[in-house]
Here is the input.
Amino acid sequence: MHRPTLQVVLVLGGLRSGSTLLGGILGAVPAMVTVGEARNVWRAYARNERCSCGASADHCPLWGPVGVELGYLGRDGAAPRVERLRATAEATLRLPRLLRTGRQLSADEMTLGSELARLYAAAAAHSGARTVVDTGKTPNLARVLAGAGVAVKVIHLVRDPRGVAVSERRAKRTPDGDSLVAPPQRTLPRSAVHWAATNSLVERELRTVAVPSVRLRYEDLMADPVGALDRVAGALGLEPALWPIELADESEPTVSFTQAHQLCGNPDRFKQGNVALRPDERWQSALAAAPRFGMELGLRPWMLRYGYAASRRPY
Ligand SMILES: [Zn+2]
Here is the structure.
C-alpha cells in the first residue's frame, strides 16, 4: 500500500514567542499532530512527565504506545537508552554547537536526527496524522532533520522583542496549580541579545539548509489567525485546512483546542476547549521608558527587518 510521505512542520524561534499556541492550533487540524518540543521527549520519558492530555507519558494514549514501539518504555534496558538519547539531544542543541560554522553534521547530530525521524513516524502512525508539528525552536534542528532525510518545512516564528522581554519575567503555572515553570529571568539587555542572536541563528541556518520556510509574526497570527495560517500553508505547500478558529466576534477570534498530546513545552499546552486569541501587549505599560528606549535603539536593525516600529509613547 502506498503511504504518502510524512512531512514535518518545525517551528523555530525564541522562547515565549507563541510556539505552544501555534502548535496547539495546528494540532487541532485532523490531518496534523503536534508533538510539542520533540527534542525533550526523552527527558519526559525518563521522568514520566505529564502530557497535555493529563496522563503521564507511560499512560498517554499517544506517547504510551509510541514509547513501547520505540523501546522507550516497557522493556528491559529502556531507561539507559532513553537517558543516552536525552543526553545526546541536550549536548547537540547547546549554544556552542549552534555557533559552530562547519556544515558537517556530527555523529551526535546524526543520531538525534534519525531518532527524531523514528519518533515522528511513530507519532503519525499512532495518531493517524500525515503531518507532524514539532515546536522545538532550537535553530540547528532544521539541519539535523534535513540531514536525516526528514521532509521538513520550517515556520520561523518571530515576536516583538519587547513582548518577549516582559513575558520572560513571568512564571507560568501548571494546571494543577502546585508548580511553577520558572521564567528565564533575564535582564532586559540579556533578553534583547538572546532575541537577536536566536533569530539571527535561525536565519543563518535557513540560508544554509535547503528546506521550505516561511516567517510568521506572533502579532499577525493573533490579529488575523485565518489569514496568517492560510499564508503559511500556501508558502509551505501544506494541504489546505479548515483552521480551528471561530470568528463569531471579529475583534476576538476564538480557537477551539481539541485534546492534544504535547508532552513537552510550556504550561500553556494544557489549555483545552475554546480560548480567545488576545494579543499580549502588556509590554506597552510594563516597560519603563529608559530601558525601552535602550532596547529599541540596540535592536533597531532587527526590529526594522521584522516590521516592529519604535513605540509612539514618549520616552
Ligand atoms: Zn497525551
User: Anything to note?
Assistant: The domain at 7-281 is CATH 3.40.50 (Rossmann fold).
